[in-house]
Amino acid sequence: MMQNPTFIRGPFFQAALLIFVAGMLYRLVRVLMLGWSKDNIPPMGSKATGVTQSYLKGLLIWPFIPWVKNTFSKNPVIYLAGGLFHLSLFTIVFFGAPHMLVFKSLLGFGWATIPLPIVDWMATAGIVAMIALLIHRLTNPVLKLISGLPEWLNWLFVFLPMITGYLMTHHLFLPYEKIFGLHVLSVSVLLIWIPFSRISHFMFYFFSRTIHGQEFGKRGVKP
Amino acid sequence: MTTQDAMNTFVKDTGGWVASQLEACTRCGICADACHFYTATGNPEYAPVWKVELLRRAYEQQFTFSGKIKLALGIDKKITDADLNHWSDLNYQACTVCNKCSIACPMGIDLGSLLAGVRSGLAAGGFVPEDLAKAVQLQLDEGSPLGMTDEVWEDRLEWVEDDWEVDIPIDVEGADTLVIFSSIEVMKFPTNIAAIAQILNAAGENWTVSSTAREVVNFGFYEGSEEHTKQFLKTLLDGAKELGVKRIVVTECGHAYDALRWHAAHMLPEANNFEITHITGVLGELVGAGRLNLKPGFYDELDAGTITFHDACKIQRKGGHIKEPREILNLLAPESFKEMTPNQEQAICCGGGGGVIAIKDADPIRFKSFELKIDQVNKVGAKTVAMSCSNCRLQYVDGVGHFDLDWKVTGLSQMVADALIEEE
């Protein structure tokens, strides 16, 4: 397979994309079909306010300002690493010029991208953050307890596209054609893995954050 | 009572609401830092994510593709009696269901509800710790887990009326408000009964207590048994209906308020025929509307040192009554009232809630986690700690004795009642 970059870039990547979309849809529908009971408890505060605050805080404030929540003052570096990793991933995946072109070929429309030097800096930050998170997972007693094979694979399958992408941009170690093939291969593996793993949290995040906002909002408490 | 019952309950509880949150967990472990039992002991098994592990496994094995593959490949094993026993210890002894972990969770997972779900499964399978199961049985047999039989209740109330010279209206049909005390107050903090009666009388409230709906404590809610929880709640709602009241006021008891205010209507829709509130809300209302003749700065004048307020998980973080105690204390003790850090919705639990205080085996970690509160209170230099939950108060009184501290532990109602200006 490695000998055939066009296969990886072509049918293999497309198959991976299909597995990713179908798998995620399956998981979404399955959870939706489990049934949702109606909340008949008279609220004390506004659920809508709670949900709004929940998203503002969850997305914008605390991943980057750990001391907003006293809990994180114990380990602000890890929290910052988590926030930085996600920011880096989003920026590169959606606003890196080559990635936007892939989306454009799939969706038929494109958008403005971020200049390479910034994307490159983001990539470095993201890779450093991932290494910090790995060290944390290897040493923290709670994370050691809750980490099994799926958790280690999660890390690996996310790290591979990042490192191959970085090597490709900087023309390091391998010829461009080869590293490009490896990059697309690692992305494909990640896409196939996501529906079977907890990396799918990017979809269920919108459930839990909404529920969190509703639960705190209906009690009139800051989420 | 078998593992299968536990499993069936786990599965029954797994609607989309629970499932989507179990799916959202990234296993980042950040919830651990929010848990007072983990922080105090460093035992990684006390991480909330690990306490919920049983529910996650049951859910995945039953519903998810990857869960079934894991089971088939032997990566995951079927849940056994030994697992349930182990998680019974983790969940009943090392969790107060205080829900601080849900604030810490970057995904915002409502861990408190999931932890309650774990308890439901354990209760259905008969894996409730002996001490807690005994208390539930007592409540089923005598109407109260603390031995507050009809006779004892009548005697205690009569004694409070005589000793504090206060009227307590009993079984008044057509009263507006039914006040339901907890047996902790009746048996251990009778001054609370007197204080609340004085306050409501002073405000001219048309209130009553009920001789049938007289125990607000709900040990079925602690153990997580829907059947028992519902049965105890029904006694209260029936009593309220008989007297024809409009409003039910839960006194200084946290979990009972949580059960009545935020869960009863899910099990018994008739709960919505009443306005259900907590005495902290009533105090806030009465003080805010100027219906109580209070002496502003009363506690500053006493010069008894700094006063701080302990936020109860079920009344403040999960109950919503965060502002009222502050408004009251800023009126009665504008100089001497100081906040602990962290406070309000981010407060650290007392360590005795969720039935933990009723379980003897949990004593060592219960006291260990109380050391966090000692640090907090000492940092602010408080000599008096006020709170609006008698279960927290029990834990504080116990902790003060255990660690030989010189703090005064009191209830918010008590503080309000003491600051009332007597009318001629």
Put the structure in a nutshell.
Chain A is an all-alpha fold and 223 residues long. Helix content of chain A is 72%, strand content 0%.
Task: List descriptors.
heterodimer, A: mainly alpha, Fumarate Reductase Cytochrome B subunit, about 0% strand, globular, B: about 425 residues, Rossmann fold, 3-stranded parallel β-sheet, 23 helices
Calculate Rg of chain B over CA atoms: 22 Å
Number of helices of chain A: 9
Oligomer: heterodimer
**CATH architecture descriptor name of the largest domain in chain B:** 3-Layer(aba) Sandwich
What is the makeup of the main sheet of chain B? 4 strands, parallel
Share of helical residues of chain B? 40-55%
Task: Specify the overall morphology of chain A.
Answer: globular
Number of domains of chain A: 1
Question: Tell me, what's the shape of chain B?
Answer: globular
Tell me what you see in this structure.
The complex is a heterodimer of chains A (223) and B (424). Chain A is mainly α and 223 residues long. Chain A has one domain (43-218): Fumarate Reductase Cytochrome B subunit. Chain A contains nine helices and no strands. The longest helix of chain A is centred in the N-terminal third of the chain and has 28 residues, at 5-32. The radius of gyration of chain A is 20 Å and the shape is globular. Chain B has three domains: 3-127, Fumarate Reductase Iron-sulfur Protein, Chain B, domain 2; 135-287, Rossmann fold; 290-418, Rossmann fold (3-Layer(aba) Sandwich). Chain B starts with a helix and ends in a 6-residue tail after the last helix. The mean pLDDT of chain B is 94. Chain B has 424 residues and is of the alpha/beta class. In chain B, α17 crosses α20 (323-332). At the A-B interface, α1, α6 and α9 of A face α2, α8 and α16 of B.
